[in-house]
Write a structure and sequence with these properties.
The structure is a homodimer.
Chain A: H1 8-14, E1 27-29, H2 34-37, E2 40-45, H3 55-68, E3 73-78, H4 81-91, E4 96-102, H5 107-115, E5 119-123, H6 127-141, E6 144-146, H7 152-166, E7 174-178, H8 183-195, E8 200-206, H9 211-218, H10 241-250, E9 253-257, H11 259-273, H12 283-290, H13 292-295, E10 299-304, H14 311-319
Parallel strand pairs in A: 2-10, 3-4, 3-6, 4-5, 7-8, 7-10, 8-9
Antiparallel strand pairs in A: 1-2
Helix pairs in contact in A: 1-7, 3-4, 3-7, 4-5, 7-8, 8-10, 11-12
GO biological process, one term (chains A, B): L-serine catabolic process
GO molecular function (chains A, B): L-serine ammonia-lyase activity; threonine deaminase activity
Cofactor (chains A, B): pyridoxal 5'-phosphate
């Protein structure tokens, strides 16, 4: 069992706190994808829930603890999905939720955050600037700050996906996980290394937002000056040291993929699987496309972790050559 | 408990026979759809499985019984989804599967039937002609014929969706069910009328394929000469008397919707819910769109029963005005 900050018993217990609407998401082999990919492809689908991403698993834990603790308010920075999920979980528990996001985040994500009764504050900058602003609000107002990937609940909530993957019979040879701040990668990775240590844990990040992958390979935090990717959900510049330390213990590899592979992945998920994936959710398919030889004939699972897209942009991406 | 051909204990037992990959499909409230529809909309999603429709629930029962009975072959007529599901379930049990379909069925459905190792025979005609041809093959070859909606397993398999809907707390005011041959409508309707009799069971069919709806309203079988709808999954002309008799006992209403409402439904499911629905799977949303007053403020569930589309046609349908 890897010596991360995560705990398998707490992760198991988390299943009793998380609204069941987020648990036991579909997991199925999608043979229609396989001729083009050359391996057995299993989809773990995290988009068929009220917030269309896996983030509800973590925010259910966060909001539940805050409510038990008598807290009335919470603030987070978000690329869009965490904020939407925290708004959903907080609303159900009477919490006053503030979300700080980039003005450049997909409008669909920002609209849903507002629709779920959260206060939305926009910054003229990227996700890491939103993080700074959220921290400042928390200090100013004396409100609890939720930090994605650093707060253990965000990792252990996401880790419940790992429990569901580890239950699969037969087991997988490799699991592909989108890598951003690292909550999902460390969470799912911790569970797999604990319960199914033979499964290769592969993190996937865009070449245009490579900070955590560089950090993993160099075994120390590497920051970048900017990001340039359509995968808004994983576009961070400043890895968190504690999260990197955990990731070093549970990931077998971290790879980078090109933008055109991400688009091809979205197109394949739509055309062959009938699934709307946001760019971050297509990273796993992109990784297979870029290294078919590595996965040839193996049993692979990929987490389709979110489906919140601006539909105009999405249709432009996939429409160029649908179904290919 | 309605006196149909169906039996609630057999339906409960069916859950132990059906591959779990088809059971406990996502059921969640989709608030993003609600401003446009004016009611609380709950999605029962039957597309996130290996055959992208609810039909696997029934074919698992069929194939399991055939295998237990030592049968080696089976033939069915299909609009596309039943054939794909029977091919999947039959392959897993070593059955030789023949599917008869219309040459005009969506290519995506026909391709998947072939890919799942079934023998595909095409007829120059519609679904009801495929039914005649499948019956002739069964007689000629002495092979078991599976008749969708007539064979009780196809109804009781679909009925397991009803068990999952009846478990929902709080319950729904109305459930909208696509109506074609009637397997899903009688199956889900039987369970709801047994376990949650207060729930209004509303069947929805296209104006361009109204035979079963006409039959339900006149309480006798009414056939039509032709069909004219994009909802290929429910385009039948010749209702089956036994199925109509059951439907009369479990449906509270049967309504017809226009093609443009079906397209608007698909567009809304994509734009607001991120879901790829085939035309038949958008019938419930279409029914709400055509009669907002009837559903205003009520808790409604609709079964998104399939997602097998030809992507070119689908993108033409939804692309006209995405997100509206």
């Amino acid at each position: 069992m890897p010596e991360t900050r995560l705990d398998i018993d707490r992760i198991r217990a988390a299943r009793r706190v998380i609204d069941p609407v987020f648990l036991n998401s579909p997991l199925y082999r999608c043979e229609a994808l396989e001729p083009a990919l050359g391996c057995a492809v299993n989809i773990k689908l995290e988009t068929a829930n009220p917030v269309r991403s896996f983030k509800g698993r973590g925010t259910e834990l966060v909001a539940s603890l805050l409510a038990d603790d008598g807290q009335g308010a919470v603030v987070c920075a978000s690329a869009g999905n965490l904020g939407q999920a925290l708004a959903w979980s907080g609303r159900g528990r009477g919490l006053d939720v503030t979300v700080v996001a980039s003005r450049h985040a997909p409008a669909a994500k920002l609209d849903r955050i507002r629709a779920l009764d959260a206060r939305l504050e926009l910054v003229d900058g990227d996700f890491d600037m939103a993080r700074e602003r959220a921290a400042a609000i928390a200090r100013r107002d004396g409100v609890r700050l939720v930090e994605d990937s650093l707060d253990i609940e965000t990792c252990e909530g996401a880790a419940t996906i790992g429990l569901e993957l580890a239950d699969a019979v037969p087991s997988f040879d490799a699991v592909l996980i989108a890598l951003g701040g690292g909550a999902m990668a460390t969470g799912v990775g911790h569970v797999l290394k604990t319960l199914a240590p033979g499964v290769e844990v592969i993190c996937v990040q865009p070449l245009g937002a490579p900070a955590m992958t560089y950090s993993w390979h160099r075994r120390r935090v590497v920051t970048t000056d900017s990001t340039d990717t359509i995968a808004d959900g994983v576009a961070g510049r400043c890895p968190i040291p504690d999260v990197l330390a955990d990731l070093l213990l549970v990931a077998d590899d971290a790879v980078l993929v090109r933008e055109e592979s991400i688009i091809a992945g979205m197109r394949m998920l739509l055309g062959h699987a009938g699934l709307v994936a946001e760019p971050s959710a297509a990273l796993g398919i992109a990784a297979i496309l870029e290294d078919r030889a590595r996965f040839a004939g193996r049993r692979v699972a990929t987490i389709v972790c979110g489906g919140n897209v601006d539909m105009d942009a999405y249709l432009r991406w996939v429409d160029a050559a649908p179904g290919t």
